TrEMBL record:
Superkingdom of the source species: Bacteria
Protein name in the entry: Cytoplasmic protein
InterPro entries: YjbR, YjbR-like_sf, YjbR/MT2646/Rv2570-like
Cross-referenced PANTHER family: CYTOPLASMIC PROTEIN (PTHR35145:SF1), CYTOPLASMIC PROTEIN-RELATED (PTHR35145)
Length: 133
């Protein structure tokens, strides 16, 4: 059995942030007061990070069907904080989230946003990017 390495909020944000910054065409924007980090591709947000009272969180776009399933499956995934609850999820550090899942969720969010861009502005093909062959 694989040992689940539990991520705390800081580790969660670091993994998600490193993953997000490495995506083609991604930019990071800092907003001050309250402290928000916005990860964008061609000006569209695909990930946000902030601290909810005492808890560092990552907020990601998700397909509404996937978002509902993720919330049911993982105690540390809740509806998007300050976002459309159907299309966004909030991920917290805790016992149910591991590094692999965090990276998959970041890439899924990025792909969803890229898929909404005009084709001429898409830095990658959202249908194939990051998928395992």
């Amino acid at each position: 059995m694989e040992e689940l390495i539990t991520l705390d909020g800081q580790e969660l944000q670091k993994i998600a942030g490193d993953c997000g910054v490495g995506l083609p065409g991604a930019d990071l924007e800092h907003r001050v007061g309250p402290d928000w980090h916005l990860y964008k591709v061609r000006g569209k947000v695909f990930m946000l990070m902030t601290d909810m009272p005492g808890r560092p969180v990552v907020i990601l776009k998700a397909d509404p069907g996937d978002a509902a399933a993720l919330r049911e499956q993982y105690a540390d995934i809740t509806p998007g904080y300050h976002m459309n609850k159907r299309h966004w999820i909030t991920v917290e550090g805790g016992g149910t989230i591991d590094e692999k899942l965090v990276k998959e969720l970041v890439i899924d969010s990025y792909r969803l946003v890229v898929g909404g861009l005009p084709q001429s502005e898409q830095p990658v093909d959202p249908r194939t990017y990051g998928r395992r062959a």
